[in-house]
Design brief:
The protein has about 260 residues and is an alpha/beta fold. The chain has nine helices and seven strands, in the order E-H-E-H-E-H-E-H-E-H-E-H-H-E-H-H.
């Protein structure tokens, strides 16, 4: 039984579909109820038992209600995939407090609320648990998204810390860092921006969603039972290639934020 946040679109939807094909029951959540229910119907066509829950991970009360619904419906949670997140492009000098807080609140605080709420219930019920936090390739920094780099770095070291604290409860915690992967989110970038993605790694092409969902499946499965506190990077070599923003300002940040926000 797997809970995938941000499961209505993008990598979250692709991961849910792969897990459904492997026989998992699923809970998916996101803020966009229409897209969420459409994704749930697609998963049911694959034979999965699915609970779709419109909510925001920014609100700890809604997170607790979600977790209570999971245990009421399924009696347990095997894997939590924290995939929900978001950001907008801005020079660091121009980020307003409201924008900074919004990104930190989703990418760091929201992830933490989900992690803690799941772990508390695993501990209370004496059940094992497994958390996979989807972050980003931040190892060289990413100009124009200082807020998301700060949040994702926080998630990495939060995960390493609680992986140790929660090991006695048989709870594993790992991160997965995708590089440039072609999902429907590519549609939010300009043509020049999309073209620049093909230069972001030495393989000279963007990854496919399955490249990342295979990694999520690995971390979610018994195949990784001796792995905790780790970061699995799937980026086509981007982290050793150099700057993925050739020519100064990252062209791939020519981004339609309002279009992306409406799709959430």
């Amino acid at each position: 039984m797997v809970l995938v946040s941000g499961g209505g679109t993008g990598l979250g939807k692709h991961a849910s579909e792969q897990l459904a094909r492997l026989g998992a029951s699923l809970v998916i959540c996101s803020r966009n109820a229409e897209r969420l229910e459409a994704a749930a119907e697609d998963l049911r066509k694959l034979g999965a038992r699915v609970l779709a829950r419109p909510m925001t991970i920014r609100e700890p009360e809604q997170v607790c209600e979600l977790m209570d619904a999971v245990w009421k419906e399924f009696g347990r949670l095997d894997v939590l995939v924290n995939n929900a997140g978001g950001q907008f492009a801005s020079p660091a000098l121009e980020i307003k407090p409201k924008g900074w807080n919004a990104v930190i609140d989703t990418n760091l605080n929201g992830t933490w609320y989900m992690m803690q709420a799941a772990a508390q219930r695993w501990q209370q019920h004496g059940q094992p648990g497994n958390i996979v936090n989807v972050i980003a390739v931040i190892w060289r920094g990413l100009p124009m998204v200082a807020h998301t780099c700060a949040a994702r770095a926080g998630v990495v070291y939060l995960s390493k810390t609680v992986a140790v604290e929660w090991a006695p409860y048989n709870i594993r915690v790992n991160c997965l860092a995708p590089g440039t992967v072609e999902t429907d989110a590519f549609n939010y970038y300009s043509e020049a921006g999309r073209a620049s993605f093909q230069q972001a790694n030495p393989m000279k092409h963007a990854g496919e969603p399955q490249d990342v969902t295979e990694g999520i499946t690995y971390l979610a499965s018994e195949a990784s039972k001796f792995v905790t506190g780790e970061v699995l990077t799937i980026d086509g070599g981007q982290q050793v290639w150099g700057d993925p923003w050739f020519g100064g300002r990252p062209r791939y940040f020519e981004f339609d934020y309002e279009k992306a926000r409406r799709a959430e």
